[in-house]
Amino acid sequence: MSKVTPLGRPRDPAVDERVLDAALLVYGDVGWSGFSIEAVARSSEVGKASIYLRWSTKQDLLNAALLRSIAAVADRDTGHIRADLIGLTRQMLALYLGPSGRAAMRLSLDGERVAETRQWHAKIARARVTAARSIVRRAVERRELPATTSATLVLDVLCGGAMMHALSTPPALRGKVSRNADAYAYAYAEQLVSLVLD
Amino acid sequence: MSKVTPLGRPRDPAVDERVLDAALLVYGDVGWSGFSIEAVARSSEVGKASIYLRWSTKQDLLNAALLRSIAAVADRDTGHIRADLIGLTRQMLALYLGPSGRAAMRLSLDGERVAETRQWHAKIARARVTAARSIVRRAVERRELPATTSATLVLDVLCGGAMMHALSTPPALRGKVSRNADAYAYAYAEQLVSLVLD
Q1: CB nearest to A164's CB, from B31, B156, B191
Q2: How far apart are CA A26 and CA A42, in angstroms?
Q3: Under a CB-based contact definition with an 8 Å cutoff, are residues B92 and B8 in contact?
Q4: Is the pTM of this model over 0.90?
Q5: Out of A29, A109, A161, closest to residue B160 by CB
Q6: Per-residue H/E/C for chain B
Q7: Does the pLDDT of residue B196 top 80, yes or no?
Q8: Å from A10 to nearest chain B CA?
Q9: What is the average pLDDT across B135-144?
Q10: Could you give the residue ranges of the DSSP H alpha helices within chain A?
């Protein structure tokens, strides 16, 4: 019943996913300096040749893995400073506590020095700064915050708090947390935002 | 006039320093997976043979570099919660903004997975948690903070805020900031602590 195509067997999407999952974990473990198609082949148990058929360079492979798993934060206007900040913080916590967390943290470090990762780092950072500025601006307009509030200070505290919390959660526990990430991230995001607002 | 020693020329301490400085920067740039005596030799312009005479493995070399430059935080009891927290935050900011900052951040990531860096990571993290707990405990005893205050939440925010602030300071500016690190770290530490306490 299988359709014959002149280009040979169709690509198996399950293999793509296995390779991209592995690429994300390998990058999270070793950063750009240790990242290689060979290491991803070993970790995913997919042959190097099959990987090269799909992505011809390690840069292409990493781009595909990041594109699939790491989203820039979205700013949703709820009309209230507290809910806006909790929404932003939840997204950052879910990222750092989830399976892409270590890759996201590697990006913040590599992004400064490694040309191949710079655009990713810049895109993620820009989305956060833009969201934090908009949230604070709206809150100032609604007189929920004083006009002197520094959006970058608020962002440093919430994003840094989220990252630090993930880093200090033991990996074993992080797995548990991650299965229940949404409820957990919500509760912790609330605590972080309360510390800043109250 | 030089004293003849049976073991040959005495080691030149300036070479030691050059190698250790380079080791810290190389580690900060590439993490454990890219760290090698060869890379440090290239960066320091000291021959590999001379480096091996001093440190026989890359682990010994990294240990020596970290021991020289990365201190665990010290908890100084000033009698007031604000000054205690500012003191703690200043130390973390000075670390992350200074020349060892990238190495310290690499350690937080490598420390989880790479056996060779685990003890360093644990030592730094333990000193911070102990300091934060003592500071919060004293503040609760003085009734400056409610008994329910979470020391880890406070630490996540201050330490994460310090790390994030360093990460979002452009490298060029960070150099400038670093030359004036003490005054700068003090001012920013005050802002972070005010956000938490006020």
Answers
A1: B156
A2: 10
A3: no
A4: no
A5: A161
A6: CCCCCCCCCCCCHHHHHHHHHHHHHHHHHHHHHHCCHHHHHHHHCCCHHHHHHHCCCHHHHHHHHHHHHCCCCCCCCCCCHHHHHHHHHHHHHHHHHCCCHHHHHHHHHHHHHCHHHHHHHHHHHHHHHHHHHHHHHHHHHCCCCCCCCCHHHHHHHHHHHHHHHHHHCCHHHHHHHHHCHHHHHHHHHHHHHHHHHC
A7: no
A8: 36
A9: 95
A10: 13-34, 37-44, 48-54, 58-69, 81-97, 101-113, 115-141, 151-168, 171-179, 181-197
Determine contact: A127 vs chain B, CB below 8 A. Answer: no
Q: Over range A101-110, report the average pLDDT.
A: 94
Question: For residue range A144-156, what is the model confidence (pLDDT) as tens digits?
Answer: 999 988 999 999 9
Are B195 and A30 inside 8 Å of each other by CB?
no
Q: What percent of chain A has pLDDT over 90?
A: 66
The identity of residue A172, as a single letter, is A
Comparison of pLDDT for A102 and A173, the residue scoring more: A102
Alpha-carbon distance of B159 to B166, in angstroms, equals: 11
Mean pLDDT score, B188-196: 80
Mean pLDDT of A62-84: 94
Dihedral angle at the C-alpha atoms of B139, B144, B149, B154, nearest 10 degrees?
-70
pLDDT digits (tens, 9 = 90+) for B2-29: 444 455 667 788 999 999 999 999 999 9
Long-range contacts of B116-122 (CB under 8 A, 24+ apart): B116/B32, B116/B59, B116/B62, B117/B32, B117/B62, B120/B63, B120/B66, B120/B70
Mean pLDDT of B98-113: 92
